[in-house]
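Tokens help. One example:
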Amino acid sequence: MVASNPLFVGWSLRKFNATVINDVWPEVFFFSAVAAMVACVTKLTSHDLAISNALLSVLGTVLGLVISFRTSSAYERYQEGRKMWTNISIASRNLGQIIWIHVPLNRKDASGRALTTVESVIEKKSMINLVQAFAVAVKHFLREEPGVYFQDLYPLICFLPRYANHLNPTAADMLPLWKASEDERYPLEQAVAPGSSTSSLPVKVEQPTGAGKKLRRAKTFDPEAALADIQAHRPLLPARNPPHTGFLDFFPVLKIFPWMFATCSRRVRATLLHTKNPKKKKGPLAESNVPLEITVYLSAYFAHLLQLGQLAPAVATSFMNNVASLQDTMSNLERIGSTPLPFAYQAHLRMSVWLYLCFLPFQIVASFGYLTIPGTAFAAFLLLGFLEIGSEIENPFQYDLNDLDLDSFCLAIQRELHEITAHTTPAPDDFVFSAWNQPFAPGDRRSAEELAAASKAGDYTHADHGDSEPGMMTIRRVLLWNYREVDRMTRQ
């Protein structure tokens, strides 16, 4: 995502590509050519192509309002998408804290066996990894990248069961999470150990040319290196798979020639073979919703903890509310990504802009003369640019340079969850009564260790106030004095 102000920082090729110049310059060139034709004919010949400009201001105002509405509605979707990702971050942090802190370490499993501390930590960290996997799965889901075999997703969920039948798993028993990702070239059945619902670790598969290549933002930046090193039975797709940028992307007007060539080639082949064009192979009726599957496992873990009585009622309510928040946010993101503005509205608006720009030179040539050419070019760049911006940010979850940086959002969630699990959740007695803590400053700058020792000796006093009364009354006086002093100091 490019968000810096180009007026105050240096330009680069990436920032130039983030503009809409590459998208609108063919149309700007066309309308400039129309304006040049009108100006030359009017000035160099006896024909006068000028027409009345009575409707110019009226139509321009209406068209400007419509384009403004188009851009505003697209930016509103952009902002809403960012808010939804903030909700995912908040819910992920809350779930991570609940699982890591509120789920007890000393407990029993479903069979009644007491879990060791190491086993409890492994279980809780694995479920927190599923929370991280949810954000990554949402990213791929919004980018229309189905399946689970990605370098940043598969290591987080590879331990989940593949089959409903644990004894003799077959293709008919494959769970939806893995069934939707199946590839005939790499069947999962051959990688399953007998009597296991998950796959064994097969021999590492050779990566084909270009597949599984990690996209690195810098020579030392490799976010997938922080994940588990799990050998899959098939090559893993890269975490980022942006569309290839070619020559035709900078000259979109030339895309008509490959389309014409492909259309003629298909017709020629169909004529020679005396067959009709084959229809596209239809995929399954419904693919597995990977984020939904992950929330199902989180809900199952929640039910497991409730059955064992390991969660307090308030904590259990918060756990379920955050899982529901993830599901609700996912539905809203899907709504934003899959509900574009109606085609009739977009087509009518673009045709209206084209007609306005076509007739603009005829209306201003009498007043502007040869300045009609740059004037039309500027008007075309302005109106068409806003239209293109609205179309680009309408779905802010793809790989355009102006889209939301979903990868950085997922990495931020990953860092926060690892920060949560880095805490050892010590008891307050282990860190409160230390020499580093001065709880009653500025009124009393003694450390908590000294205050506790004085309290045990029964001689807690505040020397500055000359108060000889020990105990809570002295503490209350110190806190009251703190309020007055802090209020005075912070208001000056």
Q: What stands out?
A: Residues 202 and 218 are 32 Å apart (CA to CA). The two ends are 43 Å apart (CA to CA). Residues 13-145+284-421 form one domain. Confidence is low (pLDDT under 50) at residues 199-203, 207-218, 270-286, 463-469.
